[in-house]
Amino acid sequence: MRIASILLLSAALLLSGCAKSQPAEHGAHGGSHEAGGKEQVQAVFGVKSSGGQTAAKAQDDTPLTIQIQDAAGKPVNEFDLNHEKMMHLIVVSKDLSYFNHIHPEYQGKGLFTVTTRFPAGGDYKLFADFAPSGKEKSVLSHALTVQGNAASPAGLKPDAKLTATVNGTEVALAIDGLKAGAEANLTYTFKDAATKAPVQNLQPYLGAVGHVVILDAAAEQYLHVHPTDEKSTGPSAKFMTTFPQSGIYKIWGEFQRDGQVFAVPFVVKVP
Q: What is the tens place of the pLDDT at every residue in 105-125?
């Protein structure tokens, strides 16, 4: 099989200047590519679109392959489950207007595969989030250009109010301690959009009340945050993390209610 758009990633740090994951009890991890001390992992990302063409095309089903290897280029064979999945793949457009959280299937011998669709042409970034067995979690990224008509770029401006209504649920976000390098508390509260009654029937999504993914404006600094109380069903969900640097960040909270998973995006400026 011909593989194009391949990028061999070394085990360099994804978060510039951040050599450690966020503390496990905070439910967040950054972008350390080191796994198990001096051992390192790397990834080969591949694209093979329908019809045998080796390029991603907007609106087409696009099979992606992600080969996980050790520093010597040998397949990494064993992976731990991380919130019910061996790999979380986050796909975002360059302007962060598009977000997709999908889960490649493990085929053995370090190979993960998944088929997805890109909504428009242009530049995207992929983050493979996984944990080789017995080693630290890793996040490896890949830049991908998708063929087709590009969407008009969306500006990334901080939201004046951190409230949104999605799928019949009114969601508000409050952040305590919003400052670079400090521990920040993220509290989501939920109301039924029609009745304004507190929502208390949130359902587990990937084994927890919700998940939060955070990226800076350049999509270089990555945080995947898990709740402090995974068994909560509402009307609130609390998370804890540390923003590594000042700047503008986009935050996606993912939750499930009435069998529907929904993402709530907010943009904040971290002083």
A: 999 999 999 999 999 999 999
Q: Are 171 and 188 in contact (CB under 8 A)?
A: yes
Contact criterion met (CB below 8 Å) for 269 and 242: no
**CA distances, 132 to each of 35, 202, 262 (Å):** 8, 31, 29
d(CA 189, CA 196): 12
Phi, psi of 24 (to 5 degrees): -60, -35
The pTM of this model reads: 0.84
Two tokens, residue 208: 């927890």
DSSP bridge pairs for 66? 45, 112
The strand ranges marked E within 103-210 are: 105-108, 111-116, 122-130, 138-146, 163-166, 169-176, 183-192, 202-203
Checking phi first, is residue 181 left (phi over 0); if not, alpha (psi -120 to 50) or beta? left
Q: Apex CA 162: angle with CA 157 and CA 166, to 5°? A: 105
